[in-house]
User: Fold this.
Amino acid sequence: IDMGRLTVGYQPIADSRSRRIRGVEALVRWPRDDRIHYTPDVFIPVAEESGLIEDLGYFVLSEACKQAAQWPDIFVSVNVSPVQFMNPGFAELVERTLTRTGLQATRLELEVTEGFIIDNADRANVIINRLHDMKVGVALDDFGTGFSSIGHLRRFKFDKLKLDRSMVTDILRQPSALRLVQGTIAMADALGLMVVAEGVEDENQVSVLRLAGCSQFQGFLFSRPVSAQEIGSMLTAAAPLAASA
Ligand code: C2E
Ligand code: MG
Ligand code: MG
Assistant:
């Protein structure tokens, strides 16, 4: 972190009908000189255990807000670890970052997983409500893994539900997987939550998910995570995202 080696990649999130970019997810990257890349799946847990996640998370949040303020309209979604989220000063940190970077609160979304709620439901509720009042979006990430509790969806003011790739992957092969996804989207709809499908890799998945009422798509079919500069070019081209862009 101190050596400035970390960077942030951005993966487009497309509108399910127009296929235009509605937003991007910021994903931390650690490129190395020898062309070996450490993936976040490996180093995020280490950062969490060692207490470095707050610095790492703050770097990604600042960088993503600064960058998004340069782009027109689109939202930027930032992953937040439980440790960061439960820090008493978290909402203020977000507020200060927005002020400093000039990004409108409505253009920031924070992605949390259910793990953080389990031990600290009351505190989590206070923080989510606070972010909600600030007009910052809160998305429940990786839905379909872990707890996937209907109770949590009803109790907490989430704006969005992100269907995990593991749920999306099987919908073309297993009728039961498709019914589960359809049911999840219907449930989200009843609760007023927008649904994003993660890990969309296939054009047939797009047709099925759109029919089921999914609003936004994210996946390699549209684009892998790319540099901020490449996002800028995509936005300038203003074209719908073609398959395998
Ligand atoms: P996530 O938040 O669920 O992010 C989506 C992950 O799925 C990303 O992996 C993305 O590259 C990958 N992905 C997107 N579309 C596809 C697809 O079509 N096929 C496949 N096979 N994969 C796809 P990535 O960048 O390796 O990140 C992994 C996880 O690490 C993230 O999962 C998130 O939980 C965590 N992470 C990444 N950046 C940050 C960060 O800045 N802070 C925190 N706390 N966690 C982060
Ligand atoms: Mg995420
Ligand atoms: Mg996810």
Notes: Residues 53-68 form the longest helix (16 residues). DSSP finds eleven helices and eight strands in the chain.
